[in-house]
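User: I'm putting together a small comparison set for a docking exercise, and I want a reference complex before I start. The sequence is below, and the ligand is calcium ion. Could you produce the 3D structure with the ligand included, as structure tokens?
Assistant: Of course. I'll restate your input first, then give the structure tokens for the complex.
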Amino acid sequence: MRILVIEDEKKIASFVRKGLEEQGVTVTVSNNGDDGYLLAKTQPFDVIILDIMLPGRDGLSILKNLREQKNIVPVIMLTARSEMNEKVEGLNLGADDYITKPFYMEELIARVQAIARRGGGEKFNILQASDLTVNLVSRDIKRGTRKIELTPREFSLLEYIMRSPGRVFTRTQILEHVWGYDFDPQTNIVDVCVQRVRKKIFDEDNKLIETVRGVGYRFYKK
Ligand code: CA
């Protein structure tokens, strides 16, 4: 999946880039409206995240021009709280959604996923590493051509660590994310679950799910 981010505030642009790249998205950032418009016009993107106030061409005219050229790439506008009129105008011009600054990355990812699903953006919903694929919508898991069945907890654990390849997760983090907060951190429930997932995904050599001694687990990063 390829996403174009047209945003002149460098901090926001890099925050968005980082968050999306962690989801396996290829991100192109443009810091001004003219370059952004040119990219949007000439290159294929699955989603455009578009700021309104930009140096050069502003966000609304970028959107307007794209739609006039029958370019139907999904657009999520980034708006400030005060830009109520712009929001309405943007939606009238054919924006697919908007998000108000400041926002949480999770919120933006959820909007992007919703749009990707609507547009049949399959790629965003599939996590892949080596020949292991996890479809987050149908929840189908495969290793090569072999189908794998995981329980909901196992699935949730795998998805959680697989979303951030190379990042080390502590047992407590995994416990909190997969089981909620009320579990005794002394329990070995995480280790037991990891063992089961490894077995089911044919990861007996711990290549995909690596143990980081004394800390926790890390999912394989290419
Ligand atoms: Ca701006």
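The chain has two domains: 2-118, 126-219. The two ends are 18 Å apart (CA to CA).
User: Thanks, that's exactly what I needed.
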